[in-house]
Amino acid sequence: MSDDYYVCTGCALLCDDISVKVEDEKLTAVHAACRKGVAFMKGCSHPMEATINGETADVESAIKEASNILKKAEHPLIFGHANSSSAAQFKAIELARRTNGYLDDTSSFCQGPLIEAIMEDKLKTCTLDDVRHKADVIIFWGSDPASAHPRHMSRYSYFPRGKERQRGWEEDRTVIAIDVRKSDTAEICGKNGLYQIPVKGDAEFMDALVSALSGKVPKTSYDFDKKRLLELASIMKKAKFGVIFAGLGMVYSLEDNEPLYRLMEKLNSVSNFHVIPMSGHYNMVGFNKNLFGETGYINRVKFEGEEIKHGPEYSVVEALRKKDIDAALVIGADPYSSLPRSIVRHLEDIPLIVIDPCQTLTSTKADVTIPCGLVGVESGGTAVRMDGVEVELKQIVESDRLSDEDVMTKILEGL
Ligand code: SF4
């Protein structure tokens, strides 16, 4: 195995302790990654090929065709980015600027509201390293790392010993799941660790917790054991360093962030609590951070000359629903797999370009497909972990595929 350690880009944990075996410029063994990470790093079962209108093409011709499509478009959509290097994301921002395009990413329909609140300093956050070293109360709210981020609990949140948590998980940490179901993570939290709430019951449960933390009798319209709710409030109040890992279960349940703001404000008046959104794709937070730095917004923007428009009407979902776009470039995402058919249908009526290391459902519908190297294996770069920490990704094998950044640069040159 290698003496160097590499980073797995299988999810937004970006585990940086991976050793590998390389034979004939192929990854033949991956050590320390979870099964999901090993499968991801070993590459695609169906690598992407360069095509134009379904016919095999050389990469340069496919790139030239992509530039021509974008040059002719008046309102293209540049979408994806969650599985792209930060350098490619900056090129995508430039591309959207130069083409008066819509620019959006997958956070637009998942963790966007929480990531935005953190970037605007409306929610207190911390790093995963802080969690490992300090956290004594860990709450998985609508999140299931045992399934989605397999090494989360062993590397950071529950099992490791930390500088201020030397006695280990058995004595030093309390772990709780608040969820609508008994997830794999809830199983690990033990008999009394699951607080099961009804679907869409999160906002009420947050307000009941605020009441309990204020010394009042908590009330919910659904039948929830008040004694258990008071016990939970007491655990949270006594925390020296608490963290809520917010999953999509919570995000999709809340109509806005207000109940969470109320809970966090109360918690931080009596205790010390932080929120980390459980982002899935390895560099979604990177895109949000990079776009925020360039425009002041994390997603859902439309460029018009010098003007930057922002709002729900500029989201990928609304742009597709209203048929406002006349071409689309998808990089590092698969909207046909993640959005309803009724939304993505418009992509069939306009020229569609897909850039990806692997074939996807979306690439089967594309007019132009362009392969790129798998970031973190065939090309290097940087990405941003779910907690906002920037991580360097080293290239592991030599590849004749262009990096995602190089593909974007060439498309820009062809405009
Ligand atoms: S937890 Fe995520 S980053 Fe870590 S090895 Fe597994 S897939 Fe890769």
TrEMBL record:
Which GO CC terms are listed, alphabetically? membrane
Which SUPFAM superfamilies has this protein been placed in? Formate dehydrogenase/DMSO reductase, domains 1-3
Protein name in UniProt: Formylmethanofuran dehydrogenase subunit B
* Record GO terms (molecular function): formylmethanofuran dehydrogenase activity; NADH dehydrogenase activity
Matching entries from InterPro entries are given as: Formylmethanofuran_DH_bsu (IPR016457), Prok_molybdopt-oxidoreductase (IPR050123)
Q: Which GO terms describe its biological process?
A: methanogenesis; respiratory electron transport chain
Recorded hits in NCBIfam families, A to Z, give: one_C_dehyd_B (TIGR03129)
Which keywords belong to this entry? Oxidoreductase
Report the source organism.
Answer: Methanolobus zinderi
**PANTHER family reported for this sequence:** FORMATE DEHYDROGENASE H, RESPIRATORY NITRATE REDUCTASE
